[in-house]
Amino acid sequence: MLCGSVLILARMLTITQALYDRIVAHARADHPDEACGVIAGPAGSGRPERFVPMLNAARSPTFYEFDSTDLLALYREMDDRDEEPVVIYHSHTATEAYPSRTDVSYAGEPGAHYVLVSTADTDGGGPFQFRSFRIVDGEITEEDVRVVPSS
Amino acid sequence: MAIEVRIPTILRTYTDGQKAVEGGGATIDELFKDLETRHPGIRERLVDEAGELRRFVNVYLNDEDVRFLGGIATELGDGDSVTILPAVAGGAA
């Protein structure tokens, strides 16, 4: 379509197939523990580009936490590259891909897309889910996920 | 005593959008009380009712998480740099 301007939709995550697949693969690999990580992108662009899987320091099926030293290194690196965490992802391994009360209480990046996947299907617990949310001031807003071909 | 304090996005509403501010104090506790005088409301986001660091924030003195040093009583020196970051955590529990 010949179109001069790009329509920015506020409530949508646009992600390449390759990055989508990497999140799914990470969640599958770490099941039954929760997997977590970030996709960084140029500050202000809202474009997830650089996949950064993180270690779940809690190594737990019901909790995740970035190791505090890794967290500082990650933020310094993003700062140096003029990036921000566009996507913060983690998996739920026995429940649906919807932010828990714990997720909401910890959500400290109002500008990020919080992606949740559920690997509960591994143990026969319903279909695989990949969903995205904004979590701002304790309020959850689900948004559409648009997967585009990798360039 | 000048300490540079790096402020995360979520707390920049208290610092007029500034990424870093200066503060003073001999400990993290004093530093946060000093910040509160110029950035009202910020201390409550960092420290709980019992006077301890909130679980949801990580505070670093230079490269070290202060939880592995002296916590909120960690001593500061001139030229030190303090970084505040929201913990990235959660989960189904």
From TrEMBL, chain B:
Gene3D superfamilies in alphabetical order: 3.10.20.30
Domain of life: Bacteria
InterPro entries with a match to the protein in the record: Beta-grasp_dom_sf (IPR012675), MoaD_arc-typ (IPR010038), Mopterin_synth/thiamin_S_b (IPR016155), Sulfur_Carrier/Prot_Modifier (IPR052045), ThiS/MoaD-like (IPR003749)
UniProt name for this protein: MoaD family protein
